[in-house]
Amino acid sequence: MLLVGGTVLACFFMLAAALYFFRMKRTEAAWFAIALLVLISSFVGVYAAFYGQAGLPAGEGLSSADWLSFLGGYLGFAGSLIMAWLVYRQDTKLKELTMEEYKPAFYSCIRGVMTVTDTVEGREKVFTTVEDGEKTKKIYFTNDAFPVNMSKKMFLCTEEHMPVICFTIENAGKLSAEKLRFDELKISPYGSKNAGRAYRFEEKTGGNLLSGRHELLPGKALNFCVAMHLLPDRLEFSLAQLSFSFEMKEERTNETIQFYIEKHEEKIFVSDGEHLYKAIS
To answer: Over the stretch 57-80, which tens digit does the pLDDT of each residue have?
Structure first.
C-alpha cells in the first residue's frame, strides 16, 4: 500500500509540474516531467502485471531479491534514457551558442548624400558611381525607395532634387549572410508616436541587391545607395529605419539600420549619429 500511495503521489506531482511548465511556456521542462511520469507509470504497470500475474506469469514464490533485481534493471534503463536526453540537450545548447557567436554581425555607416535629377533612364541603372575624394570613385548598388502606394511602373515623371543616400554595411561575423534583401524604409518625426511615412523597394533583376539572391561573406562590405522618391520638400528632424533581412542556415533574420534625416526644400541633412552629411541642390 505504501508503494502504491507513493507512486500515485509522484504521478500526480509530475502531472501538475508538467501543466505548470506548459503554462509558463517552459516546454522542455514540461516534456521532461511527462517523461518521468511515463517511466514511473510504466514501472508500476509492469510491477502490477507481474504481481497479479495478469497474463504475464512470472512463477511462484518470488522473493524480495527478485523484485529488487527487476527494479535495478528498470532503473538502469530509465537512467540511460535520462542521460541520453541530457546529452542531446547539451549538444543542442552548444550548437545554439555556437550559432549565436558566429552569426553575422553588421556594421553600417553613411558615406554621403547627394541630390540628383531623377529620370526614367536613371531608374533602370543597377550601379551608381560616386566621387569619394579627388581621384577615388566608388560603385554603389542603386535601390529605389517608393511610397508604399506607388511602384516604378506608375512613376513615369521626372523628379528634381531627389535625395540619394550612400551607405556601407560590413559583415563583421563569422558566417555568411545569404539571400540579402531590403524590406522597407520608415520615416517618422523624431519623438513622435505617429506612423510617419513608409517606403517600399522596387524589385528589379540584374545586379540589384533587392533580388534576394546576394550573399555577404564574413569580413566583406557592400556599398549601396537608396534613392528616396517623392520625399516632401520640408521634412522636420526625423528618425529613419531601413529594414533588411537575410538567411542563415535556412532561417530568416531581420536587421535595421537607423539614421536621421531632415530636409528644407533643396537642402537635405542626414546623420548616422556620428557624422553629419548635407547636400544642397
So the answer is: 555 565 556 666 766 776 777 777
pLDDT in tens, 222-252: 898 898 888 888 889 999 999 998 887 778 8
Amino acid at 53: Q
Output the pLDDT for position 139.
83
Distance CA 60, CA 62 (A): 6
The confidence band for 213, taking pLDDT boundaries of 50, 70 and 90, is confident
Is residue 131's pLDDT more than 60?
A: yes
pLDDT at residue 125 is higher than 70: yes
Please determine, for residue 43, whether its predicted confidence score (pLDDT) is greater than 70.
no
Please state, in angstroms and rounded to a whole number, the distance separating the CA atoms of residues 254 and 171: 14
The C-alpha cell of 95 is what? Answer: 550548437
Map grid coordinates 548635407 to a residue.
Answer: 278
Measured between alpha carbons, how far is 111 from 225 in angstroms, rounded to an integer?
Answer: 9
Answer for the pair 70, 63: CB distance below 8 angstroms, yes or no: no
